[in-house]
């Protein structure tokens, strides 16, 4: 029997942040310089220890040359895909079981 996959929206967000930075060829040190932050803050965000507000997200993606709209669209696409998969894995309910 297959193991049910676990979908974590927060981890999806963090993975996308890291992927965008890496695909832009920007190190954590370089991103920190561009943002005026410490490298440890970049690391904390990517590990999920520190959260970003929307203005910080805007600065983050602009600092790696990634459009905010494109980032949000990709995040939405990934989360929608995960939601669809989660629904496939959800156990079926019979008519006599509460929702």
TrEMBL record:
<dbReference type="InterPro" id="IPR001387">
    <property type="entry name" value="Cro/C1-type_HTH"/>
</dbReference>
<protein>
    <submittedName>
        <fullName>Helix-turn-helix transcriptional regulator</fullName>
    </submittedName>
</protein>
<dbReference type="Pfam" id="PF01381">
    <property type="entry name" value="HTH_3"/>
</dbReference>
<feature type="domain" description="HTH cro/C1-type">
    <location>
        <begin position="17"/>
        <end position="71"/>
    </location>
</feature>
<dbReference type="InterPro" id="IPR010982">
    <property type="entry name" value="Lambda_DNA-bd_dom_sf"/>
</dbReference>
């Amino acid at each position: 029997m297959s193991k049910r996959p676990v979908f974590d929206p927060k981890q999806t967000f963090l993975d996308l942040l890291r992927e965008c930075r890496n695909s832009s060829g920007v190190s954590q040190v370089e991103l920190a310089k561009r943002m005026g932050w410490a490298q440890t803050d970049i690391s904390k965000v990517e590990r999920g220890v520190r959260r970003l507000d929307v203005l910080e997200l805007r600065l983050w993606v602009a600092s790696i040359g990634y459009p905010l709209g494109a980032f949000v669209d990709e995040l939405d696409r990934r989360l929608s895909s995960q939601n669809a998969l989660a629904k496939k894995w959800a156990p079926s309910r019979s008519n006599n079981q509460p929702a």
